[in-house]
Amino acid sequence: MEENSINREKSPLRQLRENRSLTRPQVKQLIGVSERRQADWESGKAMPSIENIVAMARLYKVSLKTMCRSLDIDVTGVPDDVLS
Q1: Which of 82, 8, 81, 84 is nearest to 42 (CA)?
Q2: CA 64 to CA 68: how far, in whole Å?
Q3: Which residues lie below 8 Å from residue 15, measured CB to CB, with a gap of 6+?
Q4: Domain residue ranges in the chain
Q5: Alpha helices in 1-84 (DSSP H)
Q6: For the domain 2-70, what is the CATH code?
Q7: 57, 67 in Cβ contact below 8 A?
Q8: Residue 48 CA: distances (Å) to CA of 2, 23, 84
Q9: Which among 70, 64, 68, 75 has a CA at the least distance from the CA of 17?
């Protein structure tokens, strides 16, 4: 059983958090989301609100498209903003 947990891949959302060297308790302090809720997002059991997606994008310093992809949201055909 322990071997399965070692071989299991980390979710993209968890990887984004860990790439910034943040723990769930730190994210809780910074954006006010419980560790349980974060675990549910990272496991795919729940979907964060758009406000929380934006907060995590800021915190993890990634684009909203990257955040959406990490949550398995299809962004195919969504244009990038073009500054005029």
Answers
A1: 8
A2: 6
A3: 70
A4: 2-70
A5: 2-7, 12-19, 24-31, 35-43, 50-60, 64-70
A6: 1.10.260.40
A7: yes
A8: 29, 17, 32
A9: 70
The full length of the chain comes to: 84
Reported pTM: 0.83
Place of tokens 């959302």: 13
What whole-number distance in Å separates Cα of residue 24 and Cα of residue 42?
11
Query: Mind listing the pLDDT tens digit for each residue in 2-48?
Result: 545 554 789 999 999 999 999 999 999 999 999 999 999 999 999 99
Q: How far apart are CA 24 and CA 67, in angstroms?
A: 17
Q: Which two tokens stand for residue 3?
A: 């071997």
